Amino acid sequence: MSRTIVVVGASRGIGSSIVHQLASNSDFNILALSRNVERMKASFKSYSNVTCFALDLNAKDVRSQCETIFLNYPSIDILINNAGVLVNKPFLELSREDLETCYSVNVMGVMETVQAALPKMDKAHIVNISSVGGFQGSVKFSGLTAYSTSKAAVCSFTELFAEEYKDTFIKMNCLCLGAAQTEMLEEAFPGYEAPVSADKMAEYIVDFALNADQWMNGKIIPVSLSTP
Ligand SMILES: NC(=O)c1ccc[n+]([C@@H]2O[C@H](COP(=O)([O-])OP(=O)(O)OC[C@H]3O[C@@H](n4cnc5c(N)ncnc54)[C@H](OP(=O)(O)O)[C@@H]3O)[C@@H](O)[C@H]2O)c1
């Protein structure tokens, strides 16, 4: 059965890997979204089932940008909200712009993408990618106040959405990822070696996105080797 799958934040890291893994199945019609459309086109050029679109989640018109992208697609079966931005700064040094960027991309961008996708959804699974740092009771890291609080908001959004849409066939779940080796991690924590590769993390996310809505809705799941 053919499925239309939207991957937001597909130009690099985990999102890029998610698209590569999905694209090997010709039954999937994949929409790859992020700002760097040239990088996506180069990376996915060998797949006829991947279409790339420019999207900036740090803009005022995310909902209408997404509505335009989705216009020619009759339905969306899976939406993976993977895009994210990380600011690593001591709390007192955080500027208004730092806070706004994190909340705009990581929270409002996710909500507005969902708003644009909903009219195209009948039976669907929405997967939000949060961080273990935004998971209550998890190990926390200095300097990640803007980032981790925004990721906590994504967890909360997941529960609220699931409640509001519980009588529909649209399910939303949230994965709180632990460290995976990507450019984001390298930029934020130079020299740190994550226990999991981007490809390995993507493998879990792909399987979860394709299957988990049969068993769960509104769930927030840590995908991490760290304790707590
Ligand atoms: N790597 C980790 O250890 C880790 C741990 C916990 C959670 N996560 C989460 O996992 C997700 C993927 O992380 P990653 O490590 O793969 O990050 P990454 O390598 O930095 O990739 C982030 C993706 O988000 C997109 N993006 C960033 N700002 C955007 C914007 N304004 N509009 C649209 N797209 C935007 C980027 O594309 P463009 O630059 O082309 O726009 C890129 O494709 C993120 O949500 C991150 O918070 C990662």
Question: Helix and strand layout, with pairings?
Answer:
Elements: E1 3-8, H1 13-23, E2 28-34, H2 37-43, E3 50-54, H3 62-70, E4 78-81, H4 96-117, E5 123-131, H5 145-164, E6 169-177, E7 180-181, H6 183-188, E8 196-197, H7 198-211, E9 220-223
Parallel strand pairs: 1-2, 1-4, 2-3, 4-5, 5-6, 6-9, 7-8
The protein binds NADP nicotinamide-adenine-dinucleotide phosphate (NAP).
What would you note in describing this structure?
Helix 1 (13-23) crosses helix 7 (198-211) and helix 4 (96-117) runs parallel beside helix 5. The protein is 39% helix and 21% strand. It has helices at residues 13-23, 37-43, 62-70, 96-117, 145-164, 183-188, 198-211; strands at residues 3-8, 28-34, 50-54, 78-81, 123-131, 169-177, 180-181, 196-197, 220-223. It has a single domain (3-223), classed as Rossmann fold (3-Layer(aba) Sandwich). The model has no long low-confidence stretch (mean pLDDT 97). The protein has a seven-stranded parallel sheet with strand order 3-2-1-4-5-6-9, sandwiched between helices. A two-stranded parallel ribbon has the order 7-8. With 228 residues, it is α/β, with parallel strands linked by helices. It starts with a strand and ends in a 5-residue tail after the last strand. The structure holds NADP nicotinamide-adenine-dinucleotide phosphate. NADP nicotinamide-adenine-dinucleotide phosphate is lined by residues 9-15, 34-36, 55-58, 82-85, 105, 129, 131, 177, 179-180, 182-185, 194, 198. NADP nicotinamide-adenine-dinucleotide phosphate (NAP) is lined by residues 9-15, 34-36, 55-58, 82-85, 105, 129, 131, 177, 179-180, 182-185, 194, 198.
